[in-house]
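Budget justification note: compute hours in this period were largely spent on complex prediction jobs such as the one shown. Inputs:
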Amino acid sequence: MPLTSVRAAVLSALLVSSSLAAQDTTRGVRIGLRYSAGTKPGVVVLPAKGVGADSVRAIVQRDLDYGDRVEVIALDGNASENAPTAAPSWPVLARVGAAAAVQVTPTATGLHLVVYDVAKQSTALVRDYAAPPMTRMREWRSVAHWLSDDLEESLTGVKGIARSRVLFTRSNRLWSVDSDGEGLVAVADAGLPTSGAWSADGSRVTYSTLRPAQVVVKDLASEQVRAIASGPGVFIAPVFSPDGLNVVYGHGEDDGVDIFIAPTAGGGGHRLSVGRGSDNVSPTFSPDGRRIAFMSGRSGHPEIYTMDADGTNVELLTPPEFDARAHRASPDWSPDGRYVAFHAMVGQAFQIMTISLRDRSLKQLTSEGRNEDPSWAPDGRHITFTSNRTGVKQLWVIDVETGRSRQLTRGASDARNAAWSPRLLS
Amino acid sequence: MTRRTLYLSLVATTVALGACRGKPEPAPAPAPVAAPVQPVGPSAAEIAAGEAAKRRADSIAAAARATAAANAAAAADAERTAASMKETLAKPVYFDYNKDVIRDDARGDLDAKAAILSANPTVTYLIVGHTDEQGTAEYNLALGQRRAAQVKRYLASKGVDDARFTTQSMGDTQPAAKGTDEQSYQLNRRAEFQSSNLPGVMTRPRD
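Corresponding output:
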């Protein structure tokens, strides 16, 4: 859904002096937000003065919009010279449906956030964020995303996911990009890297390479790279255990592919699954680290199974489907532990599905084009996945609750194997 | 001029010069007349020997040329044979959609590879499994590995020591054809081969 757009006339009216505030009669609001049945609270991000004010306003607007928990009311004419210096016009804000107004002003040391409660016609929150100069764009943007996540938490009670990144592969390289699609950086290019994953604290990534065939852990701050498993055959789709002490991955040489586990401190890996020549790949941990979901072809069609973290107590998770082209793969356990997302063959194309761990109910999330490789956002509400709906495989994001989707990556080459980070510290 | 002719000429000249030295010359005496010298050529035997030597040299050279030509032909033949064997070793084999089963049309090629590998025991062999882009990257990496492993098992079943094989999967990362049609997909569902430690002269397998 696009941003709600309000004409410039409204902006002009909004910027009148605070003397009008006393005329407002809006009432009956809690925690600064007025909820109407079936709608999301409206938020206006006010213009502000200062170098970078328009940029940070655009970032915050977009972050709130992508969070899908509030209705961002966009005002035409976002020039910083129109920024209100006094309190906003409460009647106008109420008229456009705003429950809250937000203003972010760049300062000498960072960003100054003010949140206004429209119903109470008062300031609800004031907070300052230290930020580097805008010339250090990546770090500056990270602070803006941090502010957005705090803001979303103050408005809705749920922290945002703007300060997170998505790891993916393109043109035989591993990349990461901010959750809003900006800030693309290369993570690895040596050895034909394939799908990667984040550690729970976001400080490390693990990925496999094809030549040489190995599993690698990379510390993102120091850029130190360490191979924790290598040898003949193939290593596929490693993931960290939630405690960060182990990496679990698919490995095979001559007799199928099985799930293996290896300590990140070194010492070699050992096999967890007993596939007896079948393919067992794409492990994903439950949030408590006690179970692992994975794809296995042990019964013929690829299906999603779960097992204890030591490889015992294997169970088929997805309901059997008696179709020669049945294919369920690429499981990813939701951060709240309630669902496993995966892709399944529907008709002639893969589509993104979720299955409830409580009652095994299935939900199909996509239908346009071919969609595969889901990865949950840290809020447990959004999923990024690969889709060819524009003709080229790109990463997309879908809001599981509303079905609203947006394109995350763009370019002429395929983007694949997405892995959404946890909320990051920097 | 032969050596004999030269000698007689020198004698005649020396005598004539000696007569010119000493007192004033009285009445000139009649000049001595050198004895007529018959020119002396190679003997018949010498000529025959020379011709024989020439024939011998010609014969040796011809033999050398024939040997060189034969060697060159043999080398060219060996080169052609080696090239043919290398081509056979490198020729990809293809698979059906989502399968790792060796197809009937691949067995002849794999049998020919096995024969060459058996006749040339120093050769080591990398088998790389590939897939089309249908399916996910992770699934396709596993499928590519299964295809490589199947090829390895088949070649080992023909008597080639399986320690000489290395298997690898590239999944769908290195398509042979870029299209998204079935024809391209078929070209991409394949196993490729790389030979190492090839001998200087490759041995042709016995028929």
